[in-house]
Amino acid sequence: MNKKQIILFVVVTITLLVFCATSIAFGVLVVQAFEFDSVASFGDAVAIVRVEGTITGGNPPTDLFGNESTSGAYSNRIIRQLKEANEDTSVKAVVLYVDSPGGGVVASDEIYMQMTKMEKPVVVSMGTLAASGGYYISAPAEEIWANRNTLTGSIGVIAQFINIDGFMDEYGIEVSTIKSGV
Predict the structure, then answer these.
(1) Is 7 within a domain?
(2) pLDDT tens-place values along the chain, 182 residues long
(3) Which of 47, 87, 137, 149 has the fewest CB atoms nearer than 10 Å to its CB?
């Protein structure tokens, strides 16, 4: 092969690689753009609402097309899905799948409050873990199903601090408060 043929071969190869990479990237974006959260059904249905991961307040992040991330237990999405299931006449019951260590107190309480407003039967199916806030949001359900090895329970709050009173006394350190107003 002479020098011109080698250059032509390199240019064609690079062009093909760029075309393939662009095609794959475009394909991934198209698939994500048309990804649906739910499956169309005909007749009576049971809605499944998933709470997987740490319960967090707010909305999940979105991609370039405005599609919500499907991972994470974001309270606004869970509440919206519960409301939609409650209002959908084809949905006869709701399964709340919980696999969560808990999370934010306010976010967990918002989900709990929506659970108390449900007019349709709600059954909780616990995964590997449904502790703290995960257990709390499950409490209003008509039934709770858990595997004998599911780690569950423990509604509460934990706080840790270091007691340095003795250290402060030993070195003569005092706490002073300065405030203004009433």
Answers:
(1) no
(2) 788 888 888 888 999 888 888 888 777 766 665 544 444 556 799 999 999 999 999 988 888 888 888 888 999 999 999 999 999 999 999 999 999 999 999 999 999 999 999 999 999 999 999 999 999 999 999 999 999 999 998 877 667 888 898 998 999 998 888 887 76
(3) 149
The first and second tokens of residue 145, run together, are: 């199903």
Calculate the CA dihedral of residues 171, 172, 177, 178 and round it to 10 degrees. Answer: -110
Rounded-to-integer distance, Cα 122 and Cα 172, Å: 59
Structural domain including 107 reads 41-156
- Helix/strand/coil for 126: strand
| The two structure tokens encoding residue 83 | 């409301």
Residue 31 falls inside a structural domain: no
Q: What six digits make up the tokens of 121?
A: 């039967």
Q: Which CATH number is 87's domain given?
A: 3.90.226.10
Residue 55 domain-assigned (yes or no):
yes
What's the total number of domains in the chain? 1
The region that residue 170 occupies, defined by phi over 0 for left and psi between -120 and 50 for alpha, beta otherwise, is alpha
Phi, psi angle pair for 46, to nearest 5°:
-115, 125
* Alpha helix stretches (DSSP H) within the chain: 3-33, 75-87, 105-116, 133-138, 165-170
Q: Would you say residue 90 lies in a domain?
A: yes
Q: What is the pTM of this model?
A: 0.65
